[in-house]
Each structure stands twice: as C-alpha cells, then as structure tokens.
Design goal:
Blueprint (H helix, E strand, L loop, with lengths): L1 H30 L6 H19 L2 H9 L1 H7 L4 H16 L4 H24 L2 H20 L9 H9 L5 H24 L16 H15 L6 E5 L5 E5 L2 E6 L6 H19 L16 H15 L3 H14 L1 H4 L4 H8 L16 H17 L7 H13 L25 H20 L3 H6 L4 H10 L9 H9 L6 H14 L11
Helix pairs in contact: 1-2, 1-3, 2-6, 4-5, 6-7, 9-22, 10-11, 11-12, 12-18, 13-15, 16-17, 18-22
Bound molecules: zinc ion (ZN).
C-alpha cells in the first residue's frame, strides 16, 4: 500500500511542479514581462494549465485514489498521509468534471484580459475591458455548468467553493448583513468627529519611491522577511505568491504622494507570504503545500496589515525609524497624530486603500454585483453605472471615472469571481485568531514596542501555518477557537479601537 501511496505522491509532485512553473510565469507576467509578451504568455499559461489538468484527471490517479481508501482510513484523519489523499481526492473529483480545453481557455482569456484591463485603466475607459469581461463571464458560466447535479445551492456557491471549501453565499450574506448593520452607523458617528484625525502628514508630494522601498523593507525584515527566501517587486495591483515554501514573492505599488499605499500593501502581502513560508516543509511538492483557504489567507494578510501594522505599540518602535528615514516629512509629527492618520476612517474610492471600517462596504458592493452579474440580473454594459450608484449609496462618494471605480481591481480580468468575500471574511477571522493569540500571549504589546514579533509569528506557525492545506476553514477555526465564524469580535474590535481614536463611547465589555 505504501508503494501505491508513493506512486500517487510522485504523480502529484510532477503536477505541483507544473503549477509552480505556471506561478512563476504568472509572477513574471505581472512584474517583469514587457507588454509585447502578453499574447504568447497567454498561450504558454494555457498550455501549462491544460497539460497539468490532463495529468491530474488521468484515470490512473483515480485508480490510485480508490485503491488508497483503506490506507487512508487506517492512517487516521489527521495524519499527513490521509490528509494528502483526502485533499487530492476532492480536487480530483472537481477537476474531473472540467474539460482540459475549458481550463486552458479560461487561463488564456484571463491572461489576454490583463493588458486590456491595464489599458482600460490608463484611459479610464471601461469599454476597452468590456469584451474581455464578457468572455470571462461566459467561460465562468461554462465552468459552473460542469458542476450540474452536485449539491451546490447556487451558481455563486460553485465559485466560492474554489476559494474556501464549503463556503456558501448564504453564510457570507449572514456575516455581511451583520457587518452592514453595525458598521454603517459607526461610520456615520465617526464622520461626525472627523476633525479629530489629521492625516496630512501621510499625504504629501515628496515620498521618493526608493526611500519608500527601503523603509518598507526595514519594516518587513523586522516582521520576518528573509532575503534568502523572499523578494519584493513593484506591480500595478499588489499580490503575493510563492513558487515553493522557500521562494516567496511579494509585490507592492508605490505612490509618491501617499506613503501609506506601498507601506500597508507591503505589510498586507507580507502576511500572505509569511503564511505560505510557514507551511511544514515536509509538504513541499504535494497538494498540502498551500493554505487552508483564501479566507484564512486574507485573515493573515489583514492581521499583519491592520492588527499589527496599524497598532500603536508597533509604531512606538517603528515611528522613530520612520522619522529618521523621512526627517523632513515626519520630524515634527507626533506619534499620536501619525497613529490617528494611519487609522483614519473616511469613505473613499479605492478598496485596497480603504480604512478598516469602510473596507467592508467595498466588499459587500462587489459581492452583490458579482451575484447579479452571474445571475444575469445585471448586464455588463450597466456595470459601471451600477458600481457608481452603489458607491454613492453605501459610502456617499462620487466616482469620478472608471479607473477609480469599476476598473480598480484586477480580479475580474483574471476571471476570479467569488474571491472578494474572502477579504471581509478574512477581517472577521483575523480578530477571532487575534483574540485567541492575545489570550495565550499576554505580552504582545510590550514585545511589539521592542520590535519583537517572534512570539506572535511562532503562535501563528504552530496553530495555523504549518498545517498548510490539511484542514478546511471550518475545521481550522474549530481547532483554534473552538467555534465557527463570528463577526462579533471584529465589530467589537473596530468599535473599541476607532471609538478611542474618534472619542466615541467605547462599548461595554470591551477592554479599552
Ligand atoms: Zn490579500
């Protein structure tokens, strides 16, 4: 039986290698490739995806998985062997339904849409992107149809399941309804005290990109960025990927007029990279060499970005270094003013730059639009207008052009529909994990003030990262917190932290 298991592992390792080679081509496409390479790159990516898909849905893999049922059972559910077989079987059963040619077509369409999306952004003209988005949506419909007869409640659930196994639109809606109910009045009350926070120190016209990069790296190195295993490169839309547990690639975006853009994007992507770097090295080249789900992935990026990266103790350590790096810009600024500035709440146009409270409204808007696009209730021609009117309704902001509206995110160009909810679920989960970590590690604030983040890192590694893709989100949350997803702690955290900054009454039962 071990021989059958090794044979399966060998086959899966080959497929994993192809996935990683594909990931490098994707990284290169977003960071280094001259625009002229777009068309042929789309073919290369499509070929690799088709090839690895064909290898994976081979009947021989199905036979090995069948043969291994007894071995899986005897190994025990939590064992690496049973987990690998279980995860591979689930992937196999889904992949088997999708024709390799469709897989390749989706990849090619996404790659071809990328330069169109970039051009549409530059010209602020949605019509340039529209035909590509139409193609992506048609292909998504064909993809969803592959899962006819399975137990999904809705088409959207098929897509959610790819990012977070078993997650349903109904579950997302329940969480989002509560966020909406609690956060909309909080945002209004903060707006009434808006003058308590001054963020002018962050928004100047003199933040040279090289100095921003150097300072971001100084912060990341303290958090755990290791030049032997990590890179940081500029891109249009920040992302993180890994081509191996010891090959972590972060990207960020610089704005010479706003220090916060690259700094917090870098810390956010660090959180993703740190998760992938923490997976048990024994899982390398297996389907377990990944993460629990995209919601858990976002819980890590949002935790480092917000719970660590926008916390006062953290900046007690980093602020003098920031002042040394930018003496003309921050030499005269008080730490408390800076802390207020990086936590300023104000409805704005761009999701990735949004504050912690309004951020979720950006996600709720996308969640609603995606479901309407998929059901056909909203035609793609009307998407910019729907976007703009909902931005006015939810956040009270006027969208001046498509670049600052419907074209701002890269996801739809790559055909990723159903991804956005994971950001807000990540916010929710980040505080559930944070509360648990703080309960077990009471000195975190004192450590952060000294620039020490190792105890938190170690806790995250031990409880979450090392497990890779072994468990689902629900299983992982249950293991760590003893319960399911709960937006309560996140809402309390926002009310407490932002209430203090904006001089609002802090809710009962929350330590100030
Ligand atoms: Zn992220």
């Amino acid at each position: 039986m071990t021989q059958t298991y090794e044979e399966l592992k060998d086959r899966l390792a080959t497929i994993h290698d192809l996935h990683m080679a594909r990931a490098i081509l994707g990284w290169d496409q977003h960071t280094k490739m001259p625009p002229g390479g777009s068309e042929v790159r789309a073919e290369q990516l499509g070929t690799l995806d088709k090839f690895s898909h064909e290898l994976f849905i081979d009947d021989e893999i199905g036979r090995l998985l069948d043969e291994l049922r007894d071995y899986e059972e005897s190994a025990g559910r939590d064992s690496d062997e049973a987990s690998l077989i279980r995860v591979a079987r689930r992937d196999y059963e889904k992949a088997k339904r999708v024709p390799p040619e469709l897989r390749a077509e989706m990849t090619r369409a996404g790659a071809n849409a990328l330069p169109a999306w970039i051009e549409a952004r530059e010209k602020s003209d949605f019509s340039i992107f529209l035909p590509y988005l139409k193609t992506n949506l048609e292909l998504i419909h064909r993809y969803v149809d592959c899962f006819d007869g399975m137990s999904y409640e809705s088409e959207y659930d098929v897509l959610l399941d790819d990012f977070d196994e078993g997650l349903t639109a109904n579950e997302v809606r329940t969480v989002f309804d509560e966020l909406k109910r609690e956060l909309v009045p909080l945002i209004v009350r903060i707006g009434e005290n808006a003058d308590r926070v001054d963020d002018s120190s962050l928004r100047r016209s003199d933040f040279p990109i090289e100095k921003q990069r150097a300072f971001s790296l100084e912060v990341l190195e303290r958090l755990g960025f290791d030049h032997e295993k990590w890179r940081l490169d500029p891109t249009v839309h920040p992302f993180a990927m890994s081509a191996g547990i010891k090959d972590i690639r972060l990207t960020t975006r610089y704005d010479e007029t706003d220090l916060g853009v690259s700094l917090f994007a870098s810390i956010h992507e660090f959180g993703h990279g740190f998760y992938e770097a923490g997976v048990d090295p024994a899982y390398e080249r297996t389907p377990l060499a990944s993460v629990t789900s995209m919601s858990l992935h976002e819980s890590q990026s949002r935790m480092w970005e917000n719970l660590v990266g926008r916390a006062l103790p953290t900046w007690r350590f980093f602020f003098p270094k920031l002042q040394a790096a930018f003496p003309g810009q921050f030499g005269e600024v008080e730490l408390e003013t800076f802390y207020g500035a990086i936590n300023k709440v104000a409805p704005s146009l761009i999701r990735v730059e949004a504050d912690e409270a309004t951020y979720n409204m950006h996600i709720i808007l996308r969640f609603e639009l995606e479901q309407e696009m998929l059901s056909g209730d909203l035609s793609l021609e009307d998407l910019p207008e729907a976007w703009n009117s909902r931005m006015a309704e939810y956040l009270g902001v006027e969208v001046p052009d498509d670049t600052h509206g419907v074209l701002q995110d890269i996801h739809w160009s790559g055909g990723a529909i159903g991804y956005f909810p994971t950001y807000s679920l990540g916010n929710v989960v980040s505080v559930q994990l944070w509360d648990k970590a703080r309960g077990e590690l009471p000195d975190l604030d004192a450590q952060f003030e000294q620039g020490e983040f190792g105890e938190l890192s170690g806790w995250l590694r031990e409880n979450l990262h090392r497990h890779g893709r072994k468990y689902t989100s629900k299983e992982m949350l249950e293991r760590i917190t003893g319960g399911g997803m709960d937006p309560g702690p996140y809402i309390q955290y926002l009310k407490s932290k932002l209430g203090e900054i904006y001089g609002l009454p802090v809710p009962a039962g929350v330590p100030a």
